[in-house]
Amino acid sequence: MLSRRAAGRRLSTRQYRIKFHRPTPCAIPCDEGLPINIGEAVGPMWKGESGTKRSNAPNPVGRSTAEIEADLLVPVGESLHRIEFFIFEQVVGIVYYAGLSALTFGRNAAVSNNSYFHCFALPGISCNCAYFRRQRNFKPTISPYSILPQSVSVSGSGFHAEIQCGKGRSLLKMTLQNLQVGAVRLIIDEKEPLRERFRPLQALNGEPVTSDFISTEIGSDMAVLKVAANKEVVVMFKPLRLDMRNQSTSTTSLHIMLYENQLLFIYRELEDNAEPKPLTLFNRLFDYVQTSVLKWLKPLQSEQNPADEASENKNYEQNQGVAYDRDGNPINDADHPLEEGGGVEQSAHEEEDTDGLWTEHFHSFTDSKPYGPSSVAADISFIGFRHVFGLPEHADSLVLRDTNQTDPYRLYNLDVFQYEVDSPMALYGAAPYMIAHSAKATVGAFWLNSAEGWFDVSYEPDDSSLLKNLFSRFFANDKLPVAKTHWMFETGSVDIFFLFGPKPDDIFRQYSTLTGVNPLPPYFALGKHVSRWNFIDMNDVRQTDAGYDLHDIPYDVIWLDIEHTYGKRYFTWDPIKFSNPTEMIRNISAKGRKMVAVIDPHIKKDENWDLYQEALEKDYYVKDVNNRVYEGWCWPGAAVYLDFLNPEVRKWYANKYQFSEYKGSTEDLYVWNDMNEPSVFSGPEVSMPRDNIHFGGLEHREVHNVYGLFHHMSTFDGLYQRSNGKKRPFVLTRSFFIGSQRYANVWTGDNAAQWSHLRISNPMVLSLGIAGFPFTGADIGGFFGNPDDELIVRWYQVGIFHSFFRVHSELNTRRREPWFFSEQTKALLRDIVRLRYSLLPYWYKFLRFYEHTKNGWPIVRPMWTEFPTDTALFNEEKQFMIGRCLMARPVTEPGESSVHVYLPDEKSEWYDWFTHIPIVGPGVVQVATPLEKIPLFVRGGCIVPIKERMRRSSGLSHQDPFTLIMALNKDGTFANGTLYLDDGDSYEYKNGKYLYQYFVYSGDKKSGSLMSTTMHPNANYNTNAWIEKIVILGLQFYPTDVHVFRADYVPKKLNFVFDNQKMMLTIRKPEVPYLFLACNIVTVILKWRNGLSSLVMRKSENIDCIMSVVLEKCQKIFIHRDYSSGMAVRFQTKLPPELVGRVR
Q: What sign has the CA pseudo-torsion 854, 856, 858, 864?
């Protein structure tokens, strides 16, 4: 029997299976000289003026309100804002160079609908999504778009121009901005829009800082804009094209690459001097588009009721005043016959594809499209690249695959029931962002567009004569690799950011500067999260919590799903099952643990519920196409949806998290925002109709992919405000967009207890990481189904290396607590969880300084990000890095008794984490993987801080001591690392209440020293933590003694163990408090040669203490510390007589 969640989504199960094949090309001619004000004669519906009710606007297809409500379709064109929709209904070509790398963007194609939008090129199956179908079918030969030279101007950081189509007047305005971060921004929009196109600027981390062009050269047919040293943008006027070049990645400069066949905005061509009546011209274009493309598609399209078609044609003629025959000739407007041909070539057998331009049907739904079609598309070709990454979220490979003969990637946030793997189908989140990487360069591009998007990718060697001539000096091979990508959106404007790179760390820094980083989470968030749908009641919570204590397994957070509420009314508690939530939470928090409760965006329709009534009276709900409160169906049954596009709603919603509003909550209760795609069980594609109305008159199709962003933005603000800005919020979201990382963490949704879902979790997490979401993970064990012992162990072994570590499952699954498995399995799971907890200091410091918060690096990262020139790693997705020091290759296949691990970098030595045995790279090693084995390696040259004492939760271990694992490099001469510590809960670290320490070991095969330096001298944090153990791997000489020097400089002998076979030195209890890490500098180096011959001290101002570990073959190891001020003076006076005068 299906669970309620499964049953509620059953209708959508097959709707996500999409297969695409390229149909025969078609072309839509360009419109030369089309007047800008055409739409003005159509009436207020086309203007989309604020406050206009669509129920009062004319219906372009003459359908009744009842018909529209009966069929509400799913996706397709929005906001025509006037005839310029067709301008955007096909888009351009931009070439982007970065060393031997480049990007181009230009043309268009088409989409489809069926169960869940698909487009099979098979007889009898139609392509459902109209704008996608047109965009993908479109094969132009020459772009009609050009820049008017007389319109060009440059002001500081901006290049401005107007764009025309053919010989007509300018239709579009273009701005190219130079950004300080190392990127350029291209904005193209209609010159005189009747209805402004939505731009999701909230995705950005504030307004980007611009920088003046270094130099500009403006000619009659092109402009050269130097944006930085070795970086320039070349704008070609006719046809319009942008070339972006980064010369720093090559010894020879790259030149402008000429791309033919690249298109910007396509639009039907009329006679040069025609001045038709606006209404007549509008109708001509409408019907021309509606009746004259791709005759061969007609037999493949789904049949339409002839009576309905006749009725629509009759209504259309009555409403619009002009009618056309099936060939597109005007019946009652002889003054302005249509011009034959056009500015873009097309085959004689092709006709315009008009199906779905103004109304689309999807099963029983109808999309009324009151503003008409308005799609926008672009080609971005990465020249010199064979690998493109990004576009989360998809359950697919890390490298975007070629879609020439298969499905395109789709971004449209959806509630997907047990999603398929190895599929580019749309899932819960959308980040229209791609990164291209080669051994020579890394570049990126992202598009601020929150409408539905489709993306084609093709990899091909381009051996055109132009490319041969241009790149022959760089390549012996005549064929230059090109990764061609085609971006298609249902509506919106062009707002694209091009990131120059040229290295991975540059890309991460540029993207995170523009879109923001994940704020430092509370420390507990890195621990284990225990969840299921649902813990039955307070007693179930209490017993589960006690079970972890009984079986000696740490965890940090316990979660409550929808059943904890009173009838699915969020911000409430079931009065019987959870009668005393405050007491329940306090019992949990007494052990240093926290609780998370789910809060979804839909609101139960209940006239007796104050929250529902309050939002209704304030007019805070999303409206339907007739401007009435939209009512859908979700967990509570009949439900309405808060309009988070309204700033007042977001403020009101945030206030609901106040303790006075959310009764029973405490500061130890955090939030999970689920179902915020938004999910509507009764809606098209299990979501909201696209012609619903949001704040400001926006259609849902324009804002669909940012609905979830505004939801968890409000939640984050609410949690922040309830503590008066003192405590760090923790929010988990399922739906996301660019910028969501500033407010919430992400998981991969409703997976299944299958090996294929375990395998795909790694590339999904890696893809999210490089797209700016560092805190992610998958439901361990699978949300649906019951894992066996082998699968649950292997899934734990994967899950501990994802930032977000949660076990979660649906209502009808068997219990997943470790003690419900066999004793052997329980013991293995306990060991795996303890490994995770020992590494928490390492995870925490990578989320803070340098790696993510400062530079946007993902924590769980693809191998190529650390080894960018090793081409063997570009396709690797089973093996990955955690930070820069740890490499994991967990088992993801059943019965896998061994795995091959590739050890990169000829300069590195790798150490097995468990055996400490060194292995020299590069090369492939075979690692035996019995069930208890995790292939985990520490990189030579790293110092990794860990905690070895196990507590019930991470919060209880805060004052526990640290162990330093020092893995020396291949020569045994170097290792470094950092350690970060704060209170783990508040924002006091922003006020300098933290410690951030840098360790470095240097030496040779006879001696060496470990030095510690504080990275931020003005920071300070009081702690009782201390260094309990130092483990040195790869030590290439045998020490005989270990001493610690106290303030009186009298050495104290310490215990140590040296494993000669493993070359591992373990120093136990050096008794060095963590306080010494607050030193401004620790750089005392002691060298011994035939006894003590010299002492070298380097010092800086305000030295508070010193630490040094000195290693020498057959000599001694010293750890010296001094907490006093005025160290240099006291040091000299305290020195033994024979050493006085030797300090320099």
A: negative
